UniProtKB/TrEMBL annotation:
It comes from the Eukaryota. One gap junction consists of a cluster of closely packed pairs of transmembrane channels, the connexons, through which materials of low MW diffuse from one cell to a neighboring cell. This is Gap junction protein. GO terms for molecular function: gap junction channel activity. The chain crosses the membrane at residues 21-39, 77-97, 118-140, 175-200. GO terms for cellular component: connexin complex. Keywords: Cell junction, Cell membrane, Gap junction, Membrane, Transmembrane, Transmembrane helix. It is found in: Cell junction, Gap junction; Cell membrane. PANTHER family: CONNEXIN, GAP JUNCTION BETA-7 PROTEIN. The lineage of its organism: Eukaryota, Metazoa, Chordata, Craniata, Vertebrata. Belongs to the connexin family. A connexon is composed of a hexamer of connexins. It is a multi-pass membrane protein. Residues 131-198 form the Connexin cysteine-rich domain.
C-alpha cells in the first residue's frame, strides 16, 4: 500500500497541534512509519517461507506456523499505525466542516483552538491512546509476551507427534519488536502528556474568566 495518504494526514493535523503533538507526529513519521517501510517490512517479508520444521508431513508446517503466528507481526504493526493515526481525521474533518459551514478561515493561528475544536482534539488524543494500549495488549496475548523464540515445539494435527520448528532471524526480529513496543509506549506518554497539558491549560483559562467576572 501507499503511505503517502497517512503522511499527508499527519502533516495536515500538525499545524493544529501543540509542541507535544508535533513531537508525536515526528515520532510516528520517523521512528515508526519510516522504520516500517525501510527496514521492518523486509525482515518479516519471507517469515512463512523461512519457518522450518523437522518433518515433511504435508500440512504440518503450515498448521504450526498459523498456530504460533496467528497474525503476522508486520501486518499487525501496519494495522496499528493506521488505527492510531485515524483519530487525527476527526480534527481534519472538524476544521473542514467549520470552515466550509462559515465559508471562511476560522483557525488562522496554529495552536489556537476554540472549545469545539479543543473537544475534538481531546477525543482524538484519548482514542489514539486507547488504540496504542489495545494493540500492545494484542501483541502480548497473541505472541505470549514480547519475545520471539528460536525454537518452538508443535503437536498440532496433522503433525504425527511433537515436532521442532525453527524461526528465522529471531534475534533481529526481537530487536525490532522491542523497538515497536518502546515507540508505542513513547507515543502513549506523549498523548497523555499533551492531554494533561490541554486540560490544565483550559482549566486555567476557565478559572481566569470566572475570576474576572467575579471581580467585575
Amino acid at each position: 500500500m501507499s503511505w503517502a495518504f497517512l503522511r499527508d494526514l499527519l502533516s495536515g493535523v500538525n499545524k493544529y497541534s501543540t509542541g507535544i503533538g508535533r513531537i508525536w507526529v515526528a515520532v510516528v513519521f520517523i521512528f515508526r512509519l519510516l522504520v516500517y517501510i525501510v527496514v521492518a517490512e523486509n525482515i518479516w517479508k519471507y517469515e512463512h517461507d523461512e519457518f522450518e520444521c523437522n518433518i515433511k508431513q504435508p500440512g504440518c508446517e503450515n498448521v504450526c506456523f498459523d498456530h504460533f503466528f496467528p497474525i503476522s507481526h508486520i501486518r499487525l504493526w501496519a494495522l496499528q499505525l493506521i488505527m492510531v493515526s485515524t483519530p487525527s481525521l476527526l480534527v481534519v474533518f472538524h476544521v473542514a466542516y467549520r470552515e466550509k459551514h462559515h465559508n471562511q478561515k476560522l483557525y488562522k493561528s496554529p495552536g489556537q483552538i476554540d472549545g469545539g475544536l479543543l473537544c475534538t482534539y481531546l477525543i482524538s488524543l484519548i482514542l489514539k491512546t486507547v488504540f496504542e494500549i489495545v494493540f500492545l495488549f494484542l501483541f502480548y496475548k497473541l505472541y505470549n509476551g514480547f519475545e520471539i523464540p528460536r525454537l518452538v515445539k508443535c503437536d498440532m494435527r496433522p503433525c504425527p507427534n511433537t515436532v521442532d520448528c525453527y524461526i528465522s532471524k529471531p534475534t533481529e526480529k526481537m530487536i525490532f519488536l522491542y523497538f515497536l513496543v518502546a515507540t508505542s509506549c513513547l507515543c502513549i506518554v506523549l498523548n497523555l502528556t499533551e492531554l494533561s497539558y490541554l486540560v490544565f491549560k483550559y482549566s486555567i483559562k476557565c478559572y481566569r474568566k470566572r475570576y474576572v467576572k467575579r471581580h467585575h
